[in-house]
Give the backbone structure.
Amino acid sequence: MKVARWKLLLPLAVLAVGSTIATSGALATTAQTSEVRVAIMTDCKGAFAFGYEVDTAGTIAAFAQYAGAKPKNKKKPSAGMTGGTAGGKRLNLVGIGCGDETPALALKETRRLMNQLGADVMIGPLSGDEAVAIANWAKQNPQKTVIIGTAGSQDPTMQIAPKNLFRYHGDGAQWNAGLGEIVYKRLGWRTAALIGDDYSFPWTSAAGIIADFCGIGGKITKRVWTPPTGGDYAPFIRQLPRPNQVDGYFWLVGGANTSAALTAFEQAYGPVNARQHSGNLFLYFLGANTTVAPRLVGAYMGGFGTFQTGGLKTPQARAYVRNAGKWFTGQNVNDGFFYNYWNAAWALVQGLNKSNGQVGAALQRALPRSIKPGFQVANNGVLRLDSRRQAIQDQYPLQITKATGTGTVTTTIAGYVPNVDQTFGGYFGPSKKAPGRSVPACTRRKLPWQGKIKVVKNGVITNQVIK
Amino acid sequence: MRLGSTKTVTERAIGLGALVLAVLAPLIFSDYFLNSILTQGLILGIGAASLIFLSAYGGMISLAQAGLMGIAGYALANMVTQRVPGGETKGLLLGWDPTLSLVLVILFTTGVGLVFGAVASRSFGIYFLMLTLTYTVIAFLFVGSVTLIGGFSPVAGVDEYTPGFIGDIVNDRQRLYFIALISAVGVYLLIRYLVRTPFGISLQGIRDEPVRMASLGYNVAFHRTLAFGIGSLVAGIGGVLYAWWFGQLSPTIMGLDATIQLLVIAVIGGLRRIEGAWLGAIAFLVINNEVTNRIPASGLPVIGGTFNTVIGVIFLAIVIVSPDGLMGLWDRLWSIAGRNRPPRGSADAQPATEASG
C-alpha cells in the first residue's frame, strides 16, 4: 500500500511540536517568592458561563481599587491585569479557571490552578456543588487558601468548614432570609409548594425559605426536585399541587431553566398570578430579568443581599458603587456576582497587607474577620465572619417591579433583615444534616429576625416593620 | 533476523524504555504532571483498554465502559466513606472495611457487566452501541437522581479510606502513581495473555465470523457475555483507581462527556492495539492541559472554540490520516519504510496474528 508522505510527516510534525510545548510545562519550576500567586475560579461553560467576565471584573476591580493593579482591557476583564501589590508582594494573577458548575471540572481546574500554575490563593468558585468539591479539596491542602467567590451551598462553611476556606457573603439560605415571612404577612400565604433543581445550592436556598416560612407558621405541602441538567419540566410541574390547592409556589429552578419550567407551569395551569409565586435569585438574575421577571411583576424574591437597580441610599453603598464602577465599562456593580468577588478580592488584599505578603497559615490568620462591604448596614456597616469563617450579612428581600417612566422590569428592595447568620439562630448547624431533598423539616420556630424585618422605601431603611 | 521480528524487537525495546521512563517519572516530572497527567493517564488508559479489548478482540465497541468505571467508583465511595465532623456530607457513608469493599466493588462491577453483557450479547453494530450507551445513561441518571447514594453533589473523601496495602494516597501521590502503573501493566499483561488463550482465539473468531463460529458449535452469546464481563472487570479496576485519584465523585465522571472522552482516547491511541489506550490517554490529557493553559477561555479568535475545538480537529485529522490512531501511525511508519509491510486490511487481522504467534 502506497502511503502519501505528507500523511506521515504531518502528524509526526504535529506530535513533535506538541511534545515540545507540553514538556516545557511538565518539568518542575520554582515559584518567585517576591510575588503572591492568585487564581480566579469561575465558570465559562454551562448555565453560569456569563459569570466568567463578571466575576473576573469584580476581582480585578478590587485589586485595582485597593492594590494598585490596572486592568489590561476595560471592556474585557478576562484580559487580566498588570501591576498590583499587597503586603509588599506583587500580585500575579496566574490563571482564571473555567468551570461548568460540575464538581468534577471544578476539581480539575482547581488542581490546575493551584498545583500546576502554583497559585497560593484562589478566589472562587461560582456555583454550589463546585464549592462543596473545593471545600473538600481545601481540607486536604491546608497550605493553600480559598476565598469563595459567590457559591451558595451551605456545606463548605458549615459541615466541611476547612480552616483555609473563607466566605465573605451569605449562603443560599441566608440569601432568602425574610422571604417566607414577607409572603406570609403581605400575601397571606399559609401553604406553599416548592420546586427546585436537585443539587446543593437550591437545597440550601430552599432551606432558607422553609426555615423562614415554616418558622412563622406556614406549611410546605410539596417539594419537587428537577434534574439540574434541564429537559422537559412538564412531568415535574404535574407533581405540584394545582393553584387552587395551595396559596403559593416557591421557585428554585436555576439559570435559563427557570423560564422553561415556568412555561411548563403555564401550559399546565394557565397564566400565572404573580401573587401566587415567589422564589430565589433565579427569578431575576442570570438572565431571568428578561425571560422570567416580566411574567412575575409584583412577586417577592430572595437575592444576594444586593440589588439590581435603585439600591441602598447609604454613604457606604454610594462609595462602593462609585469605586467599583470606575474600572470596567459595561459592568453592573450591583450584580451579586461582581459584588461578592469584589469583596473576596478586597479581603485578600487586607489579609496580605496584614501578613506582609506571607501566604499559607500566616495569610489564613491574617485574613480579616470583618470587612465593610458596600451593602452592609448593621453593626455600623461591618460584616463579621463567624467561627467557621462564614459571613453574617444583611439581607434584602426584593420585589419584582416595573420602573416608573421607562416600564423596565426591575427589582426594588422589599425589606431589610439585619445580621443573618448561617445557622438561622440554631436552625442549622455543623452537626446537623446538610440541606437536602427533605432537609430541613418544616417546623415552627422563632428566628432571630422574626417580626423585625424593616420596610425599605426608595432605598432608605425605615423603622417600620413589615406587617 | 526477519524484518517482522525486527519490528517486534523494536517495539519491545520501546516498551521497555517506556517502562523505565515510567518508573523514573517521579524524578523527572513535576508533581502536577505526575499526578494530573501521568497518573490520570494510566487510569483512563485502563478504562480505554477495556474498550479496546472489546473492540479489537470481540468486535464490540462499547459505550458502557465509562459507566462501568463510574459504577465501580460510586460503589466504592458509598461503601468506604463515613460521617465524621467536618467531613463528608453525601452518599450512604457506610464506613465498611476498605479492603473488603475493594473486593466487593470489583465483584459487583464484574457482575453488573455480566448482566449488561448478557442482555447486549445478541446485538451487533449500531444496536450494540446504542444498548451500551443506554447502560451509561441509566447509570448516570441513577446516581444523579438517587441522592441517597450521591446526587449531583460530590461524594467526597474516597481517597482517605484505602486498604492498608495501598496506604496514604492523599499525601503521597507518588504512591498512587505507582499503584496505577502496576495496575496498568497488570491489565496489559492480562489482556495479552487472555487473547492467546483458547477463549481469546475463539472470541476473535466470533469477532470475524459469528455465524460460522455458531455453526461450529461455539456459544457466541456466552463468549461475548464473558468478554463483556472481563471488560467490566478491567473497567472496574479503572473505576476504583479513578475514584482514588479524584477523591470525590460526581455523576459527570460517567456522563456522556466522559463516555465520549474514553472513546476519543481509544481512537487517538488506536482501536486495534491495547498499547494505544495509554498512548491515547496521555496524549489526550496533555493536549487538554496545554490548550486550557494557553488558549483563553473566551475562545480562539478565529474558530471560536477552546479545548473541544482543538481535540475535535485532532480527532478528525487522526480519523483521516491514520484511522488506527497513533499506534496505526507507528505501523504505517514501518510500512512506509518498506521493512514490514502488513497485508492490506491487516488491521482487523492483526490481533488474531498476535494471538497465534
Summary: Chain B has a mean pLDDT of 88. Chain B touches chain A through 56 residues (CB under 8 Å).
